[in-house]
Amino acid sequence: MKLTVLGCYAATPRTFTNPTSQVLEIKNHLFLIDCGEGTQVQLRKYKIKFSRINHIFISHLHGDHFFGLPGLISTFRLLGRDKEMHIYGPKGIKQAITLLLKLGDSWTNYPLVFHELESKESEIVYEDEKVTVRTIPLIHRVYTNGFLFQEKEAPRTLNIEAARKYGVDKSQFIKIKEGVNGLDKFGKTVPNKQLTLDPPAPKSYAFCSDTVYNEGILPIIKDVTVLYHESTFLESESHLCEKTKHATAKQAAQIAHKANASLLVLGHYSTRYRSIELFKKEAKEVFPVVELADDGKEFDFGA
């Protein structure tokens, strides 16, 4: 599981910072999460293959989270894309995108599939044999979802040394990998768990931007491997949170602590502050394992 942060600052793009967008690589998928202005430039800068992106998740319809999407869709067309592109986002995203395409007489030459979201309850929006993606309902000024990406548990793997120890014939290996018990050299049953190894623990990634402090998300993200949580403000500006429906770094850390997350990644910083290190300092007063997102930063969470 690997995360590449393309942009992680609030509000407007600057010459040296970009609004929200990131790429999550998980189980051979490349998921694009949010698409602020400049996303396609950042994709090129960090050498992420456009052709590997088939699913785009948009949290909400504020410009710093989706204004880069029309341009990216147009670029896919110019690159000769023919594969389906699936876009998951709030109801209204289809109207917004298709109107621009219509006015510009630039319909895509590939299928554009919209999955419009309007439920206020968590729901699974994508699933295959390896990964599930479900929404995390957030509280912001407009309808907003975070997204929880979860690996499914991998099958157990054959323990060759154990098979040799029990004298299990090679002809049984395929069935053992499928979960069937084995037979030793005397014809006695050997439980499957004694002939196989536990798979790695499934990893998960929760993307939570933008939102006020909201304990309602805790049951959804409990025991998450990595929590990305917005931290627009420091505590000195906490009085702005209710008005803007944003959170502080300390509040993000409180959510991480109560969710029993393994790692907290902070982002969506207001550009009023001189250093993002201040966010980490405040968060670590509550939660010990904190990393700072920054444009172009990569996080490798292991195979």
Can you offer a commentary on this structure?
This protein is of the alpha/beta class and 303 residues long. The protein contains eleven helices and 18 strands. The strands form four sheets. A seven-stranded mixed β-sheet has the order 6-5-4-3-2-1-18. It has a seven-stranded mixed β-sheet with strand order 7-8-9-14-15-16-17, covered by helices on one side. A hairpin with a 2-residue loop joins strand 2 and strand 3. Helix 10 packs across helix 11. The longest helix is centred in the first third of the chain and has 11 residues. It is globular, with a radius of gyration of 22 Å.
Protein topology:
Blueprint lengths: L1 E6 L13 E6 L2 E7 L3 H7 L7 E5 L5 H4 L2 H10 L6 E6 L2 H11 L8 E6 L6 E4 L3 E8 L5 E8 L5 E2 L1 H7 L6 H5 L4 E2 L5 E2 L1 H4 E2 L6 E5 L9 H4 L4 E5 L10 H4 L4 H11 L3 E5 L9 H7 L6 E3 L5 E3 L3
Parallel strand pairs: 3-4, 4-5, 5-6, 14-15, 15-16, 16-17
Antiparallel strand pairs: 1-2, 1-18, 2-3, 7-8, 8-9, 9-14, 10-13, 11-12
Helix pairs in contact: 10-11
Short synopsis of the structure:
It contains eleven helices and 18 strands.
Q: Largest beta sheet, briefly?
A: 7 strands, mixed
Structure class: alpha/beta
Shape: globular
Secondary-structure element pattern, one letter each: EEEHEHHEHEEEEEHHEEHEEHEHHEHEE
Low-pLDDT stretches are: none
Q: Provide the β-strand percentage band.
A: 25-35%
Quaternary: single chain
Estimate the helix proportion, in percent: 10-25%
Between the first and last Cα atoms, what is the distance in angstroms? 6 Å
Number of strands: 18
Taking all residues together, what is the mean pLDDT?
96
Number of helices: 11
Radius of gyration: 22 Å
Spatial order of the strands forming the largest sheet: 6-5-4-3-2-1-18
